[in-house]
Amino acid sequence: MQEEKQKKMPELNMGKKNKTKLENKALLLVGVGGQGTILASKVLSEGLVKQGYDVKMSEIHGMAQRGGSVTTQIKFGKKIYAPIVGAGEADVIVAFEKLEAARYLFQLKKMGTLIVNDHEIYPLPVLLGQQQYPDNVLSVLEKQVGKRIGQLKVLQANTIAVELGNVKAQNIVLLGTVIKALGLEDLDWAEVLKEFLPLKLHELNIKALEAGLRL
Amino acid sequence: MKKLLTGNEAIARGAYEAGCVVAAAYPGTPSTEILENIAGYQEIYAEWSPNEKVALEVASGAAIGGARALAAMKHVGLNVAADPLFTMAYEGVNGGLVIVTADDPGTHSSQNEQDNRYYAPHAKVALLEPSDSQECKDFVKAAFALSEEYDLPVIIRVTTRVCHSKSLVELGERAEIGVKPYSKNVQKYAMTPAHAKVRHVIVEEKLGDLQAAAEQSPFNRVEWGGRTKGIITSGISYQYAQEVFGEEASYLKLGLTYPLPEQLIREFAAAVEEVFIIEENDPYLENSIKALGVECKGKALLPVCGELNPGIIRQAFFPEMIKAENGESIEKAEKPEGNSQAELSIPGRPPVLCAGCPHRGLFYALSKLKDVVVSGDIGCYTLGLTPPLGVTDTVICMGASISAGIGLEKAFQQGGVPRKVFSCIGDSTFFHSGITGLVDAVYNKSKICVVIMDNRITAMTGHQVNPGTGRTLQGEETTALDLEQLVRAVGIKTENIRIVDPYHLAETEKAVREAEAAQEPFVIITRRPCALLKDVQRARAGISCMIAPEKCKKCKACLKIGCPAIAVKEGQVLIDQTACNGCGLCQQVCKFGAIAKVGE
Q1: Chain B 511-570, residues with CB within 8 Å of chain A CB atoms
Q2: pLDDT digits over B511-524, tens only?
Q3: Which residue of chain B comes nearest to A59, CA vs CA?
Q4: What would the pLDDT profile of A153-191 be if each residue is shown by its tens digit?
Q5: Are residues B7 and B29 in the same domain?
Q6: Which residues of chain B are modeled with pLDDT < 50?
Q7: Domain for residue B67, yes or no?
Q8: Which CATH code for domain A24-120+138-214?
């Protein structure tokens, strides 16, 4: 319904430098408390504002932070109403942790893009040995390609971040990947990123961003 | 200039631009960032009060004194602050008084899902409901003016999705209103029964005036679209309704939701074929509108429980469309365990006490006691109820660990089966509303043991300072409350007080055993700063525990402390060095000496 309303909207630069009709886009970042999903979302939202979009971003704080599942939702386009992304509505999902990719797959639009960080963080029931961390997450997701998932991109953001000097920069590697997936490379993202980080972290994170953009 | 702000940041900005000079709050999700952001404006005096009642009273006094003042709290905080709220409606203001209540539909981080809109008619104050960040800012500014114009406190009611969603806000300049002169007026500001009788009549008159003005209020607007459906809505529900119905429907978007614009509602209803009320949680608007004799549908279609979203509305109004357009993918919305997940069993990811959390040592020690009842409280340590520690029996509200603990113990005693009750409360929660419970325990000779889990900070809401920290919200050094002295002052005997480091298990276990045997009220203070505090993290960086595989008998005793840094991978018990802060609790529970601390 939202998309119908956009028919008369002006064109903005979207998607690999092709002028395409603007549609509202929805994005979901999912991970585990402490992985830096919120920082990545903030940088992304700020960049989208700079590109002239109406942007809404929604996050959940509080108890959910303590090692729980964390989601941030971003919507952008000409005019956005609801700040939250519903089931089957996300154009792109970026999962900072493998299990969370599977958990939130129901929110992916049919044939949407799923970016998965091939990284495992054991939830408490697994730590306690009550449940198994499934070993078939990626294969199950792969089977959905062409049915449920349009594009599946699996990467080792943690390994890349460690090679760059600090595992914590994995969120910015993933940020780079999602910028590319959305075709938003035109903006100087390094400049946006700098606004959110202290000087001493600039070099590392810009490298992480560039690494993500190359993947 | 437009900026992307959360609703909370926008509320803070609105207070700044409105010339607010005093703001007070107690932290609580989803309201916390309001005061954190206000504190950044040097023109405003901002404080973390010990609780919401104190916060609202500070703001009330400031408003009587002529200042524009704001108090912010989460929904349940307004229960604590309800006492001053109701009487401040009678007293009215001098400088504007704005109360922000942040409700939590969906209980993302709360113990209930109460709908605080009802407080407005109940307390007889005005109610505004912004639906995005721009409105948060605009409504706060307007609320101060409205408060002064009608001589009434104004409630701004927001919800989690408004508080924690970012959207664009046009920034403005601050209006330097200053502080109005104060003149003594006991008939207005000293609410004795004689004065209250008079003031009650005045409040009703003021509400009548405000109700008439509501008809023309810029906060309430009609957006004409298709006339078959007329939607009356407010707050975040407006955004959801717009997303679902677009231009197919007409909207009466209410910003001022108490008093309601009765004539406007009737006119709108008469101009559309059918009226629907789209609102989250309780039928607040629906009941009021039905009481006007206007036919409408709301909760017959939409749920009372849980958070609303466009999907739920779509399902209620266009079930056929959902099947046709989205097929199976939306079915999964109802049942997240859809197709792909059938082949895959996804373990849940419940919140857990952090690696190195000082609360763990206490809960582990309590888990060793037989037949004790643990009365819990609100904070990170609410997680003491989750496995494997699983010691907590009850959680009600802030401070109830102690007072409900007293009641539990009395019940067991009256029933002839006495049991030891431990009341576990954090330092900030103790300052909030635990002290009076402890006074009761002493005065009324309870035998409970109160454990004050002193981690020097309000941790769960993101490290806000509290009276025990020794620093104010705006960064000034101040007198830190002395817990031991306070506990002694209310009458706990020195021999019934233990101060322990919860990282030292033997010491902690000894204290809980002594408390268990005590026949008088007993206090244990577990003292150790939150593991996530920046200086704690810095000091402990590099310290961690390691398991020597050759010594490990795989007895898994260390897993019983529920530390997220310890896991079994391919048959080996391993400690994640990056997550571990070397608290050493696992080392102390290992009977085989297989765990060593490194990096000290």
Answers
A1: 556, 559, 562-564, 566-568
A2: 999 999 999 999 99
A3: B164
A4: 999 999 999 999 999 999 999 999 999 999 999 999 999
A5: yes
A6: 324-338, 341
A7: yes
A8: 3.40.920.10
